Amino acid sequence: MNLDNLPVNHHEKGRLFLSNDEIETLLKASKKSRYPTRNHLMLLMMYRHGLRVSELINLRIKDVNLNRNRIWIKRLKNGLSVEHPIQGDEQRAIKRYLRKRKDALPYLFVSERKEQLTRKTLNYIIKVASNKAGLVGVHPHTLRHSCGYYLANKGYDLRLIQDYLGHRDPKHTVLYTQIAGVRFEGLW
Known about the structure:
The longest helix is centred in the C-terminal third of the chain and has 15 residues, at 119-133. The radius of gyration is 17 Å and the shape is globular. It has a single domain (20-181), classed as hpI Integrase, Chain A, CATH 1.10.443. It has helices at residues 20-30, 36-49, 53-57, 88-100, 119-133, 140-153, 158-165, 174-179, and strands spanning 64-65, 70-73, 82-85. The chain is mainly alpha-helical. Residues 13-188 form the Tyr recombinase domain. GO terms for molecular function: DNA binding.
């Protein structure tokens, strides 16, 4: 989604993100698939790290440092590449997934044909999981928006969210702080 071309009142068009409960429902639904370990991990990482589709499918095993619980996120679209921490549940999911792999491919996520995952495949995985979860209008970028919304709703400042998502320009991040309901708590 190109935020530059959106009208000023774009936030009135509907939610671009999922709530915490909806994310949990989506993640549970992703486990009801042919490749539950991989699919759950992909959606979890897209959400937790605010990954774009291309950023996820281009992740390499070498980008993950399980000894330090860190992952190197190579941002696209001229974004700022950064190192993110990996939470315990995510680390365990990565280890579980890698134990099941029997190939020597450099990519973190591979298809059933033992090739780099494609955009089309990831779009399909998210569509199937969202249908199973009973969620409408979920697309891959929804998970990135959900990450930004979560961080804003936790009260993190614009600059931290901007760096976390790899935005060079704060105008791309301000959307999340505009719609964060937590800003209005305690006003009355």
